[in-house]
Amino acid sequence: MSDRLSMYILTDTHYLSKKMWVEGAPVNSREMGDQIAIKSTPEILRSFFKKILADKEAEYVLITGDLINNGDRISHEDFIEELKVLTDAGKKVLVTAATHDYAGLGDDENIFHPVYYRENGCEPAERVYKTELPSLYYDFGHCYADSIDSESGSYSVPLGNGVRLIAIYDNGNGRSHCGLFDEGFNWLEAEIKKANERREWVVLAVHHPVIPPWPVYKGIAEFELFGGYEKLSKIMCENGVRVIFTGHTHVQGIKKYEDSEGRYFYDITTSALPSAFGRMRKVVFDKKEGTCSVESIGIETIDGIDTKGMSARDYIYSLNFIGLIEKSLPLMDTDWESFCYNTDRVFSVPFLRKHPFISKTAVKLFLKIPMSIVGRFGRKAGGVTKEDIKYLKNIRVFDSLVKIISSVFGGNGPYPPHTPEYRAFTGGAIRGMKLLKVFGIDIDKIVPGDETALETMKHFLYNDRTGDDNSIIIDMERK
Ligand SMILES: [Fe+2]
Ligand SMILES: [Fe+2]
Known about the structure:
16% strand, binds fe (ii) ion
């Protein structure tokens, strides 16, 4: 028997069956306002599956929730057919579901309602209920389990080679508490302890993250974290569980949590599969080395979609969010209406339509601002050098901001401390905040969470957490 056991991890596939939409404003508007390419989710999924199928070593595929986009029955049925391609090829597929996978019943906080996207509007579609999900996906979870939590549907699977996966189904009300209740926690802790007695390595998987992508996230939206994240962190530390795989935020990230006694674990969260920065993780458990190694794999092209020669990343990026604005900039002079329409999909700015001349002039001026202006402004505070200024003259503030915003989802921020952009941005921020204080405005008090505004900003400039959001090697042996 090999010492290695490997598994692919995907998340937030947000699958939308082709039967659920026709071309028209409703589906296009939905896609443009999101960070994922809703309409192309089947083709993107298959392009990733092609890579998995080509890898003969990997035995398992794990998908951690938001399997489909809107809680409708047809998308689940078609998604299951897609999964069968993997199982027919001999892979074992394990899933957990999350809030996008079922519809709100009106007695919980889940806001997702299944719809057909018709040409001129939406129509209700047949829903899937939360309680149905574990049995709907029986062949992709419970059938491999030797223990199941009857309340949440969470399950425990011996993967082989002394590695155990405990896949947690988020229980709760669909929004402000997506996690476990006391009974679920009791089952989970007992499972971990049993596995420890057998000297198995325990790996956890759940949709909602246990550690926020950045501390400020907790301050803004603590409810987006796993319901009971503090309790789960304690259980993991006390029982030597080194890793949990999560999704939900659509952010690519690897974060370490360490308690006051130096016990630690990693939360490895993966970007949404159909996003511009969509990747899957390949995880290898190596018993001989005592490690769990993680790498990230994307797709270069999307099979079955005419991307007009664009890479998968560029095609998806151009469809929605910040990429849509970037793509729309040339329209400012030629088609102001389309420019406003596209920006409206990302954030609504009624001022743009009401005052086209002022808006156009302001946007154009902003686009011309070179980074050297920021560098000069924060020269002293940021330690910006003459060489930095020379370099920054050729870089637009807009482009640097786009790089930072893009990296929010892709991980690994673009400007580590040795870069001129880092010195310019931090210096500019320090001086700017000092000036604002003169007028009685304290940015540190405005930014949510315990950190200063500068500390918060640095998290977005570069990866100051584990050094890499795409790969890591974790020591799995208990100390
Ligand atoms: Fe999601
Ligand atoms: Fe989610």
